[in-house]
Write a structure and sequence with these properties.
The complex is a heterodimer of chains A (about 300) and B (about 220). Helix content of chain A is about 15%, strand content about 50%. Chain A is mainly beta and about 300 residues long.
């Protein structure tokens, strides 16, 4: 009897302990979830808009991804890494604004991080300010203006004008048309397969790469102080080249005709090179203070 | 669209008041006219900078001088409306409007001197002609340079306190890039000093100053730095 009692008591204790352990486990798991939610707080909202709204994003640190869609709505997903930041939204008619608001300006960069994923109508005008991280925009045609400090910029399939400024972030613009104005201090500029007719790229110490065709009546101006300017263009490209360097060098690996049709050796390193390739339909101006300029076939 | 037509519409473009057709025409013109691109960029900078200026009231004497200078240069028609009346569109109180107008004049002088410098063409005329044109080029470059140096000095005073409160990593990026620009300013100045008629070196020198003004202005005005 007593032994049965003991046995039953020990079983009770075993069950109590098991229950306590289970509770503790559930409590621990339950405790982790809110923490991770606080650490990676997600914000999601949809805004009905017209087909050409203006969307402004101001962020301190993080990845901002924007994609053009065919629906007339702005869908935003913001992911915060700290409870000490919040996402302020403001709507003024057809204008939407998303601002990352820091409660504590002395937070570490990682804690300041907010990643945004936005889906916007294709004809949206975009204005983005991002201090650190990355900005990626794809398939927007209403005009893009990006101001970045240490943030890289990556644009694909943009059909409106692009005004881009960075201090040290690299910029890559591909398969886009519309006017491009890209300025940096130490960032690299990379232009790939553009159909733009107006390209103005300038960096101080960064490299510049242009791969693709120059279009008829287009004007392409690329300059840096040091670093490399590398142009790779297909054989059927047609342009008039004006390449100059104050202290660096200019080299062309493609057969340029000089204006008065006098033959010259374009492969020789020189400080300036003026010539025509095919019919000279586009106007290409390259300059570097002390860097190297090279023009070659793609 | 030619330069004259474009310059009539330039403020509408800066204010975003152009029709889509005008935007296309203007962009086409900008694509073929670097002179108008320079004017557009400078005016855009002026408007952005002026919006950020603190309010202050110039004394009557300074105001009279500005008024006399504007009338003397035929820049404005003062009798009916003051020249800064275009600032009405910003709906600002009187103080900031005056500040904007004064800043506009100051930068107008700067733009004019830069455009004057851009117009410098040294024609070889034998050794004495070359010397004369080189001296003239040096004087004009220095004069235009002074406006940038003054602007940079003023901006640096403001940015100093702002940068002191910045996140150290961010501050370091900005300091590195300011140092990069300073390095190129020194290199360009050295080249311009040795080759006063080198138009490309002059262009690079002024572009470097402009990059520095742009970066310092960003530090002053950015909400996120």
């Amino acid at each position: 009897m007593f032994s049965n009692f003991l046995k039953s008591r020990s079983e009770v204790w075993r069950h109590v302990l098991l229950a306590a352990f289970s509770c503790a486990l559930v409590f621990c798991i339950g405790d982790v979830s809110p923490l991770s939610a606080a650490g990676n707080d997600r914000f999601e909202k949809r805004f009905p808009v017209s087909q050409n709204p203006t969307v402004i994003v101001t962020n301190d640190n993080g990845v901002i991804t924007v994609r053009g869609i065919s629906r007339n709505e702005v869908h935003v997903v913001g992911t915060k890494r700290s409870p000490n930041v919040e996402i302020d939204t403001e709507t003024m008619g057809n204008r939407l604004r998303f601002d990352t608001h820091l409660f504590d300006k002395n937070m570490k960069p990682q804690e300041r991080t907010v990643d945004y994923v936005l889906e916007v109508p294709e004809k949206t005008s975009l204005e983005i300010h991002n201090v650190g991280g990355r900005v990626k925009v794809d398939g927007v045609s209403g005009g893009v203006s990006i101001d970045a400090l240490n943030s890289s910029i990556e644009l694909n399939n943009i059909n409106g004008s692009m005004i881009l400024r960075s201090v040290s972030g690299n910029m890559g613009i591909a398969r886009s048309s519309g006017r491009i104005e890209a300025n940096s201090i130490s960032g690299d500029l990379q232009f790939t397969d553009l159909t733009s007719q107006l390209v103005d790229g300038s960096t101080a110490s960064g490299n510049i790469s242009f791969v693709g065709n120059f279009y008829d009546n287009g004007r392409y101006t690329l300059s840096n102080y040091s670093g490399f300017i590398d142009i790779a263009t297909p054989a059927d490209s047609s342009f008039e080249l004006d390449a100059r360097s104050v202290k660096g060098s200019v080299q062309s690996e493609i057969p340029l005709k000089s204006k008065p049709h006098t033959p010259f050796n374009p492969t020789v390193m020189r400080q300036s090179l003026l010539g025509i390739y095919n019919e000279g339909a586009a106007s290409v101006h390259l300059s570097s203070f002390s860097g190297k300029i090279r023009i070659r076939k793609k | 669209m030619d330069c004259r037509e474009y310059q009539i519409l330039i403020s509408a473009q800066i204010d975003g008041d152009m029709t889509p057709a005008e935007v296309l025409e203007a962009e086409r013109h900008l694509g073929s006219c670097t002179r108008c691109v320079v004017v557009y960029n400078d005016l855009k900078t002026i408007v952005l900078e002026a919006k950020q200026l603190p309010a202050f009231e110039p004394n009557d004497r300074l105001w009279a001088q500005i008024r006399a200078q504007c009338e003397g240069e035929g820049l404005v028609e003062l009798p009916s409306k003051p020249f800064w009346s275009w600032l009405d569109r910003f709906h600002l109180p009187e103080g900031p409007r005056i500040a904007m107008a004064t800043a506009f004049l100051a930068v107008l002088v700067m733009v004019a001197s830069v455009m004057m410098y851009r117009g410098i063409r040294t024609v070889p005329q034998g050794s004495s002609g070359e010397n004369a044109s080189e001296i003239q080029a040096t004087v004009e470059v220095r004069s235009a340079e002074k406006h940038y140096i003054d602007a940079i000095d003023s901006l640096e005073k403001i940015t100093e306190s702002r940068m002191a409160q910045m996140d150290p990593a961010l501050k370091s990026v900005l300091e590195d890039n300011l140092a990069t620009i300073d390095y190129y300013i020194d290199k360009c100045r050295e080249t311009v000093k040795n080759e006063p008629s080198n138009a490309l070196a002059q262009r690079y020198l002024f572009e470097a100053y402009r990059k520095k003004v742009d970066l310092l202005s960003s530090i002053v005005h950015s909400d996120v730095f």
